[in-house]
Amino acid sequence: METIINHIQLSGLVGIIAGYLLGSIPFGLVLCRLFGYGDIRDIGSGNIGATNVLRTGNKWLAALTLILDSSKGLIAVLVAAAFFDKHAMFGAALGVVLGHNFPVWLKFKGGKGVATTLGTLLALSWPVGLACCLTWGAVAAATRISSLSALVALALAPIFVVWFGNPHQVYLVGLLALIGWIRHRANITRLLDGVEPKIGKKKTE
Questions:
Q1: pTM for the model
Q2: Residues 49, 65: contact at Cβ < 8 Å?
Q3: Cα angle value 105/108/112 (rounded, 5°)
Q4: pLDDT of 30-43, one tens digit each?
Q5: N- to C-terminal Cα distance for the chain?
Q6: Are 160 and 132 in contact (CB under 8 A)?
Q7: CB 123 within 8 A of CB 97
Q8: Buried b (16+ CB within 10 A) or exposed e, 58-91
Q9: 129-168: b or e for each residue (b if 16 or more CB lie within 10 Å)?
C-alpha cells in the first residue's frame, strides 16, 4: 500500500513539474519579439496572451499565440496520459496552467491561462473542452469582451464535466476554473464598472 501511495505521489509530482516547465514557455512574448513588436508586456494590458497580442494589430500573430498556448495544455495532458498514468495526467493539467500563469522566467508574472486551460480541457475530455470553446465563442460573438467570455466558459466547465459523465475530473476542473477567475480579478472589477475593453481594442488600463 505504501508503495502504491508513493507511486501516485511521484507520478503526480512529475506531471506537475513537467507541465509547469512546458506551460511556462511565453509564446506571446517570444513571437512578438521575433516579429519586431518588442516586449508585449509594454503593449495594451501588458499580458502575454493572445488577446493582448491582438492589440499589436497582427491578427495572424494573435492566432498563432492562441494555438501555441492552447497546445501547451493539450500536449502536456496527452503526453502524461500516454506515457504515465492518470495521476501524472492530472498533475500535468494543473502544472501547465500554473506554468503559463506564473512562469519562473518572467518572475512569476505570466498570462491568465485561458487558452492553456481550454487546451487542457480538450485533452482531459474533448466534449467538455469543445463545449467550453463554443461557450467562449458564443459569448465573445455577442459581447466582444474576451474576459467575460472566458469567465462564463470557466464557470460552466465543472458543470460540463458532470454533464458529459466525467465526475472524477470535477475537482481538478473546478480548481482550474477557480485559478482562471482569480487571475481575472481586475477584469471583473472593470466589467462591474462597465469599462472593460472589447476584443481588438489596442489600449486598456
A1: 0.90
A2: yes
A3: 115
A4: 999 999 888 888 88
A5: 54
A6: yes
A7: no
A8: beebbebbbebbbbbbbbbbbbbbeebebbbbbb
A9: bebbbebbeebbeebebbbbbbbbbbebbbebbeebebee
pLDDT tens profile 98-109: 999 999 999 899
Length of the chain: 205
User: Nine-digit cell at 63?
Assistant: 492566432
HEC letters along 61-108: HHHHHHHHHHHHHHHHHHHHHHHCCHHHHHHHHHHHHHHHHCCHHHCC
Nine-digit cell string for 53: 497580442
* Residue in 139, 111, 118 with CA at minimum distance from that of residue 199: 139
Domain ranges of the chain: 1-104, 121-205
CA distance 16 to 138: 32
What is the C-alpha to C-alpha distance for residues 62 and 66, in angstroms, rounded to an integer? Answer: 6
